[in-house]
Structures are given as structure tokens and as C-alpha cells.
Amino acid sequence: MRHISYTSLANGLSADDFAKIVAHAREENLKSHISGAIAFDGRMITQIIEGPRMAVDALYLRIRSDPRHSGVVLQTRADIKESQFEGFGLSRMTPSDLYMIAMQIEDRYGSGDSSAEPLIQRFS
């Protein structure tokens, strides 16, 4: 299993549009056995994606090429044993809730390539 987190800018995205995107992504993620969490503060998106390696990597590549995202920055990438969001598809969270998840990821995976420190810094 793969874990990826990233941040991107989504200028001009309304809260209603974001809600529609999340609903659609939740359905698509479940079909691909992908799960995760997403936060949007009106300008920046932060997302954690977990699932089968190839599916997660392919989704991340699609996100990087999606014109609704700019300045996509990979924050964490790690091989994991289990997903923290199994069966949810995509959980919508507040930035502070996602911050707490990032701290749990840091505790679970430690530092290095799998460090959640960039996400923690994003919400500090």
C-alpha cells in the first residue's frame, strides 16, 4: 500500500464546487480501493491519499496534470501496511483535523521520506 500527501493551490474554487468534486472523488476512489482525507481553506488543498501503490501513484499523476490544481507539492510518500481511512473513499476534514492526522502519520512512520513534518508545518 502507498501513502501520499500533497498540497496545491486552487484559486477561484468555490466551496460548492469543492463539495461536488469531493463527492465525485469519493465514489471514484472507492472503485479503485483508494481512501484518504482532504482539506480546503478557500485557497489551498491538502490531501492524503492511501491505497494500492499503482492506483495511488496514477491518481497523483492525474492530480498534478489537473488544471484546477497549481503549484502541486508532494509532501509525503511512504509504503504503508494499512490505510487510516479504509472504506471512506475520501473524508472531508477541516485543516485542523488534517493537522492532527498528519501528527499521527509522523508518529507512525517517523522522519525521512515518510515524514509528515511538511503537513504539520502547513497548519502550524
The SS-based structural class is: alpha+beta
Specify the biggest β-sheet: 5 strands, mixed
CATH class: Alpha Beta
Mean pLDDT over the residues? 82
Please give the count of helices.
4
Helix content: 40-55%
* Record field, number of beta strands: 5
Kindly identify the CATH topology: Alpha-Beta Plaits
The amount of beta strand, in percent, is 25-35%
Give the SSE string.
Answer: EHEEHEEHH
Domain BLUF: 1-91
Protein name: BLUF domain-containing protein
Organism: Jiella endophytica
GO molecular function: blue light photoreceptor activity; FAD binding
Describe what you observe in this structure:
Strand 2 (35-40) and strand 3 form a beta hairpin. It is built from four helices and five strands, in the order E-H-E-E-H-E-E-H-H. The protein is of the alpha+beta class and 124 residues long. It is globular. Helix content is 41%, strand content 27%. GO terms for molecular function: blue light photoreceptor activity; FAD binding. This is BLUF domain-containing protein. It comes from Jiella endophytica.
Short description:
This is BLUF domain-containing protein. The protein contains 4 helices and 5 strands.
